[in-house]
Amino acid sequence: MYIGRFIVVAPGIGAYRVSSRSFPNRQITDRSGTLTVGPTADAPETDNPYVSYNCLRSVEDSAVIGNGSHVDPIAEKLKLGYPARDALAEALLALDYEKDDYDTPRIAGVVGSETYIGTVRNDALLVRSVSEPTIVATYERDSPDAFALDAETAEEAARTVYDLEFEHPVCAVGVTTGTEIETAIVNSD
C-alpha cells in the first residue's frame, strides 16, 4: 500500500519517512542539527517547491517533524513560547494543504514535553494530543490513528519506519527527546 510520506509520534520519540513515486532521488542531510530533505547528486532537476525542505528542527526540549516548509514556522512559534498544539494548528492552517495535483496534506508532529500530531487536508485541520504512538500520512491514513512503534532510540525509530512495508521508501529520520535530543537518519542505499 502506498501512503506517501508519514510520521509516527509518541511521548519522547518520533519518526518521519519520505516515500515517493515521483521524486525518489532524495536524501536527508544534517545541517547543524536541522535535518533537511533534498535531491541526491544524481537527481533530475526540478522546480517543484515540495521536493526540498527541513523535515526536523529542534527547539529547546522538543523536536518538530513534518513533510514540508511548515516545519520552520512551527519551530519558530515554539521558540516564541506558543504551546505545541497552537504552534501546529496555526502553521498548518496558515500554509494549508499543498496545492499540487493531489492536494497533498501537510503533516507534522511535536515531540517533547508536549506531544502532538497534526494534518491539514483540503477538507480538515486535525491536531491531536498524543499519549501513545500515533501515525498520520499524506495518503490513505490521513487522519491521526494509533500505530505500533517498537523503538526506543532515534536510530531504531528511523530504521523501523524506513523498513515498514508501505511502498516506495526513500529516507527516514528518527528523534528522541528527554535530557537531550538525539536524531538519526536512514537514507536509501
TrEMBL record:
The family this protein is said to belong to: Belongs to the archaeal IMP cyclohydrolase family.
Record-given protein name: IMP cyclohydrolase
Name of one Pfam family that matches: IMP_cyclohyd
Top EC class of this enzyme: hydrolase
A biological process from GO: 'de novo' IMP biosynthetic process
Domain Inosine monophosphate cyclohydrolase-like stretches: 2-177
Stated role: Catalyzes the cyclization of 5-formylamidoimidazole-4-carboxamide ribonucleotide to IMP.
Any GO MF annotation of the entry: IMP cyclohydrolase activity
Record-linked NCBIfam families: PRK04151.1, purO_arch
Reaction equation(s) it catalyzes: IMP + H2O = 5-formamido-1-(5-phospho-D-ribosyl)imidazole-4-carboxamide
Known EC number: 3.5.4.10
Pathway: Purine metabolism; IMP biosynthesis via de novo pathway; IMP from 5-formamido-1-(5-phospho-D-ribosyl)imidazole-4-carboxamide: step 1/1
Alphabetic keyword roster: Hydrolase, Purine biosynthesis
Gene3D superfamilies: Inosine monophosphate cyclohydrolase-like
